[in-house]
Amino acid sequence: MARFNNHRILITGAGAGIGALMAEEFAKQGAEVIVTARRIAAAREVADRIKTAGGKAHAYVLDVSKLASIAKFRDKLHEEVGPITALINNAGVVFGGEFEQVELEQHLNTFRINTEGLMATTHAFLNDLIQAKQGYLVNIASASAFVGLPYGSTYAASKWAVVGFSESIRLELDVRKIKNVDVTTVCPSYISTGMFDGVKTPLLTPMLTPEKVVKSIIRGMLKKDSFVIEPPIAKSTELLKAALPRKIWDEVAYRIGVSTSMYSWKGKK
Ligand SMILES: NC(=O)c1ccc[n+]([C@@H]2O[C@H](COP(=O)([O-])OP(=O)(O)OC[C@H]3O[C@@H](n4cnc5c(N)ncnc54)[C@H](OP(=O)(O)O)[C@@H]3O)[C@@H](O)[C@H]2O)c1
Questions:
Q1: Domain range list for the chain
Q2: Ligand 1 close to Cβ of residue 38 (< 6 A)
Q3: 19 CB under 6 A from ligand 1?
Q4: Which tens digits make up the pLDDT trace of 34-86?
Q5: I need a labelling partner for 39 at 20 to 30 A (CA). Which of 79, 178, 245, 249 fits?
Q6: Between 3.40.50.150, 3.40.50.720, 3.40.50.2300, 3.30.565.10, what CATH number should domain 8-255 receive?
Q7: Is 155 a residue of the active site?
Q8: Residue nearest to atom 40 of ligand 1 (CA)
Q9: 188 and 208 in contact (C-beta within 8 Å)?
Q10: d(CA 53, CA 31)
């Protein structure tokens, strides 16, 4: 299937996890993929796999926490490859634990990467998407953008901010009558990539596979969905929160295991 023929898709944090899998899937579907990662070796490994399978890929270093480097990277990419038509803001980190026991720098780094890095990358590349015949902006948030997440407060906060940003950009493009750029905000619950190793998944919220999430993201993009929420039951969170008195919702979140899910978080080694 060549649903992304004529697309040049940049993915941040694409050296591992769902970023790497998206890169391979987009390439299979005809896209030229810009695989970016903090380490060039990780980006090259994914780009090489794509090229060996007959796809088109380029590997670049992009550390989204180095905010000032992002516009320079855009200029270099324009010179060496050209403008992009789709941006997948995927890079992310999490540091779980009791709030005051986690180093302040790790909390701040979470915000710098998950939120500021995503905004700076969008700032650098939005004009490319506007100039494209069909542009896509995909922001990977999280189902924790709809709830409070004990032991993961700055992670949840960074993703709440991503949802607010992503929705605002989508509406801004609409108000500006820019119809050729579709914005999709992705909110999955826990995925088995290692980032959340050790968590206890809440009731009725099974651990998602990277394959399932990537399939949903691509389907959502093609359907021009403004939100992709996985699993579907996570869509009821906002409804329940609005309908129930706060104390009852707090009790529900505790009893179904949302509020305690991060207690046993270990993350990637
Ligand atoms: N896993 C889940 O349960 C889950 C649930 C909801 C949402 N998400 C979100 O999904 C996205 C992908 O996560 P994942 O599950 O695929 O985990 P992952 O395998 O850890 O992927 C995260 C990627 O971000 C990269 N990254 C970290 N800091 C970076 C930086 N400063 N600059 C550029 N890249 C950086 C990582 O690179 P390194 O390998 O160099 O660290 C890694 O490739 C993240 O935004 C995450 O918050 C994940």
A1: 8-255
A2: yes
A3: yes
A4: 999 999 999 999 999 999 999 999 999 999 999 999 999 999 999 999 999 99
A5: 79
A6: 3.40.50.720
A7: yes
A8: 38
A9: yes
A10: 13
